[in-house]
Amino acid sequence: MPTIAPVDVDGFVVRAGFLKDCVFFASGEGDIVFSGQGERTERPHKAGLLAAEPVRDGAGLITSGDDGRVFLSDGDGSCECLAERPRKWIDLVAAGPSGAIAFASGRTAWVRFPDGREKEFSNDTAVGGLAFAPKGMRLAVSHYDGATLYWAGTDGAPVKLTWKGAHLGVSFSPDGKYLVTAMQENALHGWRLSDGQDMRMTGYPGKVKSFSWSAKGRYLATSGANAAILWPFFGKTGPMGQSPLQLGARGDALVTAVACHPVEDVAAVGYQDGMIMMCRFEDNAEVLLRRPGNGPVSSLDWDGDGTRLAFGTEAGEAGIVSLQD
Amino acid sequence: MTAAQDAPAQIPVTVLTGYLGAGKTTLLNRILTENHGQRYAVIVNEFGEVGIDNDLLVESDEEIFEMNNGCICCTVRGDLIRTVQNLMKRRNAFDAIIVETTGVADPAPVAQTFFMDDDVRAKARLDAVVAVVDARHVLKRLEDTEEAEDQVAFADVILINKTDLVSEQQLAEVEARIRSINPYAVLHRSERCGIDIAKVLDRGAFDLDRILSLDPHFLQHGHHADECGPDCDHDHDHHHHGHDHDHECGPDCDHDHHHHHHHDDPHSVKSISLKAGDLDPNMFFPWINQITQVQGPNILRMKGILAFKGDPQRYVIQGVHMIVEGDHQRDWKEDEPRESRLVFIGRDLNWDVLRDSFQACAAE
Question: Could you tell me which residues the WD repeats occupy (chain A) (predicted)?
């Protein structure tokens, strides 16, 4: 039976997840709770915290806030200020290869290289989302009417991908073949990067705010409907002409967060009312992980081997679900 | 655990519009410094020369998103959606939101954001659009620019500021002109934005439950005496001068007849008040849908209190461009005449067609 260890967090849980040696819960009110051998709370930002993302090797957590700062916290008490843009709200961060990070505020995105150098990428419209490609120093910036791919390490010409509308969150498929964005009007858009082929994935009653690639990148699981919607990305044409899987369908609540298991074809699905289920792709078998609570599930993430799930809600409820006793 | 569930469901949002120099920042600072115990999150377009003294202050580049639904007036402010979402991560840090727009901003996308974006709508509600105008310059602005007219037409509350810098006659002209565009807004006069903050905040102007009457406000003698107690010390000293335009319009007036030179002016915003007895809902709803679909881009604001045949309840309706919201409000009172009243404020509307087709919705 799964067991839940609750963790006290004050405020909207912006991001919950795992570093190498501990679990973290980053709250919009500014606290970051690290739970490992013991529990420790850090508060690097002067006021609110807007975004958080673990670095790729799991050695630390990047956070950004409305104080215009980006911090790297390791969970053992060290918080290093990596960048500062006075008076800007930095609400997007992404983790890149070998310690590189990207962050954005308004129309500008920046990449900070491991040696501390920074490079600026200006756009005509606000940055909606940031993502590094799985390999190489390649950054995707989504914005109004499309997305732009930059080779951050060189001065090569950026690649522009266009599609009318406002593009928000952005993600590369793990094999680097596709780029997917969530749009303002309750749809996903995708591009096959080899030839720029467009893909429309529509039918959502709400905005897609959470996406997660399944093991080996076979499916892209998404929130925004009354079930987790999983688009198939195997085969030559990806999701084109295919029906998505619908997991954990409920009549009374929308899915607000999804996290695919790192190994098995299973996804954790979090709902508007705080409930969390685990659903198997093959037969839609469901296991209840958490009963409804006080607020929508805002973040879900598995540890590396898929035995523990960190969760947080907008109402400040948080915890760790363990699948093994 | 936090007490987030104790917080009110939707945060009230006040939008401040007005031309550069009219006094928006002065009003904002008055609101922020008044001792009211409220904590505001303030969204400004740019940090101006006049400082704004507030903990939670965010600069936001106005960014218009067109929706991919083929509707040219269905625009929202992308930056506002994002800022509201970011603010909600610190839900316990403030009680209300104030949005200050640039002088040339179109207020419609700001308002529509609170109706068209589901996430924003779930967390925040538009309380009122407050326009600050400079008594010295507003007439010229209204002649020169569509934006100034839009701001006046769109407003629920209009603060005519810098009244100490014009004569009483000039002020009367300003009021008459503003009334000709928007007879339904509450008008206040101020010097250096000195006004009782309660007249600006918590207006519930988009709240269907608070649509109580649709009388043009200038017909109320005493200028909103309903809002001031006898001890009230604000701008009453001007009021007795303001009444000389009352006789120019009757209750059925569509407020364009003393501005004939505007008739051929493409910028000209007008209002119309339609009246009928009981309506046939099977006629009215298709009609209002069609009107807002076809004429939506030209409709700035719309409000109505309607009586449907056989329905004991008042039906209230309000809209912005193509967005229409309606609901039953309460039973008609015994002493209340069952009357349907619908007002439109817009530009280039086909007024005669509007009037005739509305009459065709009357119940047999």
Answer: 170-201
